[in-house]
Amino acid sequence: MRPNVANVAEKNMSNQRSLIHPRDEITQTMARIYGYRMTTTSGGNLSIRDENGDIWISPARVDKGNLTRNDIVCVKADGTVDGLHPPSSEFPFHKAIYESRPDIRAIVHAHPVALVAYSICQSVPNTRLFHQTHSVSGNVGFAPYACPGSEQLGVNIAATFAEGCDSVILENHGVVVGGDSLPCAFQRFEAFEFAGKTLIKAQQLGPVRYLDDEQLQTAHDRSVDLPTFEPGVASANERELRRQLCDFLRRGCRQRLLISTEGSFSARLDADTFLITPTQKDRERLTPDDIVLVHHGQRELGKKASRAVLAHRAIYQNDPDAKAVVFAHPVNATAFSVTDVKFNTRTIPESYVFLLDVDHVPYGVQYLAGGSIAKYASTHSPASILDNDGVVVVGTSVLDAFDRLEVLEATAEAVINAGAIGKVAVMPDAVIDELRSAFNLS
User: Fold this and answer.
1) DSSP calls for 146-181
2) 0.85 cut: is pTM over it?
3) How far, in Å, CA of 238 to CA of 45, rounded?
4) In this predicted model, what pLDDT tens digit does every residue of 188-243 receive, in sequence order?
5) Which residues are in the Class II aldolase/adducin N-terminal domain (predicted)?
6) 52, 240, 299, 373 — which has fewest CB within 10 A?
C-alpha cells in the first residue's frame, strides 16, 4: 500500500447527472417503496420532470407491486399524453408543484402508515429528533384537504410548496415530497417517514427529547478529511468482506434496520486496516467497489469514507477482538435514543446473552476527537443507545454484528409492545448470574 500525498479532485456522487431513463427510475423507486411497505397496491404515485419540461409519471389503476417500465406515462410539455395507460389521477397536483417550484424535478406521493397517522391528526412530525432526518427532510409543511385528483388539491399543495416546503403532510390523505432528483425525493420521503415512525414509538415510552439549534449545528459541521493512499491488489479476505458488507447493508435496509441516507458499517482486516461504507451514497445500492478501505488513518484514493470513520477506528484501536462495527437507526431501538427511558435487555435470555446491559451514550460523543466512543462500544459492551442518533453495535464478525443489531431491534419492539399489555417483568439477578455463568459472559 502506497501513501499518496497529491491532491486529487474527487466527484461528489450526489451531484452526478443521472443516466437512468425516467421510466426505469420510477419503476425501481416504486418497487422499493412498495417493498418497504410504504405504500399500497393502489396508492401513491411518482413523477419526474425532465429537461424538456415533459413529466413522466406512474399510471392510474396499475398494480404498484408489479409496475413495469412500459406502464410509465409521459405527459409532454404541450399536454399530449404518451403511454399505455392514463396518467395518475393525481397528475394535477404534480403539475401544480412543478409550476410553483422550478427547482423541483421529482415528486414522491404515497401513504406510509406513520405519516398517514399524522395526516389524520392534522399534525406534522418534528424532525429535530435527529440531525439527519432534520437535514434530509428539508422544510416541512401541511396542506389542507381537497378531493383527491381535483384542481383544488393541486392549488392547496402547490401553495405550501411555494412557501419553501419540501415535505408536505396532506390533511387526511398522506404525504408529498419533492426534490431535485428522484433519489433525493425518495430519501426525503424515507427520512420523513422514519422520523414519524420513531416519534410515534418514542411517545409510547415517555417524554421525547429534541435537538436544539446548537446540537444540530454541531452535527452538521462535523467533517473528516483523511489523507489518501493507493491500495495494492485486494486479498481474497478483503473481497469477501466487501461482499459481506454490501449483502448485510442491503438486508438491513430491507428490514428497516438502516435507512438509505444514514448509518455506517465496517469490517476489520488487520490491526489498523478496515473497510467502511462511503459517505453520501445510498446504503442499499452499494457495491463492493463502493466500500472504502482505510489503512493507518488514510482512505482509499478516489473514495470518501463515512463521516463516522474516526469513531469506527477508535473502537478497533481500543478492542482487538472487535471485527465489525455498525451505527444504525432501527426504529424501535432508536425510539429509546430520543427519550431518557432505560433500554432493559433483562427480558428474555437471548436479549441479555447477545447484548448484555445496554447503556445510553450522551449526545455527540461519537463526533468527538480522541475516540471517546470507544469507552461505550466494544465486544464487552456490544450495544449502546446513542442519544438522538440511533445505536452502535460491535461484533466479532460482520454476521455477529448484524445478528446483534437484529436482536437489539427485536427486543426494543417487544418491550415497547409489552408496555401496551402491562408492566414489563425483568429477569431477577439470580437468572442473570445463571446466564453469565452458562454462556461464559465476562
Assistant:
1) --TT-HHHHHHHHHHHHTT-SEEEETTTEEEEEESS
2) yes
3) 41
4) 999 999 999 999 999 999 999 999 999 999 888 888 889 999 999 999 999 999 99
5) 24-200, 243-416
6) 52
